[in-house]
Amino acid sequence: MTQQKDEMSFLDHLEELRWHLIRSTVAVLVIAVVAFFLKDFIFDTIIFGPRKGDFITYEMFCKLGQFFNYESDFCMEKLPFSIQNRTMAGQFSVHLWTSIWAGVILGFPYILYEIWRFISPGLYENERKIASGFIFIASLLFFMGVLFGYYMIAPLSINFLGTYTVSQEVANQIDLNSYISVVRSSVISCGLVFELPIIIYFLTKLGLITPTFMRKYRRHALVLVLILAAIITPPDVASQIIVAIPIMLLYEISIFISVYVLKKEQKRKAKVE
């Protein structure tokens, strides 16, 4: 089977890739259809959850502020802004695209599985054996990032931007698409950022990254992490620190992963020689 795939032409590889993409798309669409009919739960419970004053993140920061005798902006029954739709097909469009994105997020493990099936014929036998572990760890990291984005980044962004005013004369009436965009970008960006250890794993195997390189440029990485945190969070120091800490922890974990991969590669080359 491996030999046949090695002898496949470029067009044959494209044909195989096409079928992997088709199966991934079908999986996403099936989940999207289910999400489409779970409209009340998807929107009222999940997406509009961070808009409610009793959201778990707000309660946590409120109690933390009370513990330190600090008047917190998170202690409010309801955030002082309304969400509106200003186009005829706006709500249907949001419903449709939100269902599709739900399909992408929940179908992420299967998408990874199809990607792995496509690239695995070009790997060594022992590398193909770790497929299940790779898919599990990559999916776990992605969903951890999604949860971090939903419970930390999205509420902090919504609370800050939704309550920010330049004057009492201006009322915050947030467009539906704008609100959904904040939640979606927070969740997906964190999900992808949490894939850093997986990315470092493959970059190390390709010889593009080494542990020495990562340790040498640790300070530069910290600056980049702070810049990234400033981009995906509201412009306040506390939010940026909350985001920067787990990313730096992932960076340190990635160094250990790089060390492990490099040692494995050196042992393999030594056996070959």
Automatic annotation (TrEMBL):
Transmembrane regions listed in the UniProt entry: 21-38, 94-113, 134-153, 186-208, 220-235, 241-262
Q: Which family does it belong to?
A: Belongs to the TatC family.
Q: Which InterPro entries match?
A: TatC
Outline what the protein does: Part of the twin-arginine translocation (Tat) system that transports large folded proteins containing a characteristic twin-arginine motif in their signal peptide across membranes.
Q: What is this protein called?
A: Sec-independent protein translocase protein TatC
Q: Would the keyword Heme be found if you checked this record's keyword annotation?
A: no
Subunit organization: Forms a complex with TatA.
UniProt subcellular location: Cell membrane; Membrane
Share an example GO biological-process annotation for this protein.
intracellular protein transmembrane transport
One GO term in the molecular function aspect is: proton motive force dependent protein transmembrane transporter activity
A GO CC annotation recorded here is: TAT protein transport complex
The question of whether Cell membrane is a record keyword is answered with yes
Query: Main subcellular localization, coarse class?
Result: membrane
Topology term for the membrane? Multi-pass membrane protein
**Which keywords describe this protein according to UniProt?**
Cell membrane, Membrane, Protein transport, Translocation, Transmembrane, Transmembrane helix, Transport
What NCBIfam families does the entry give?
A: tatC
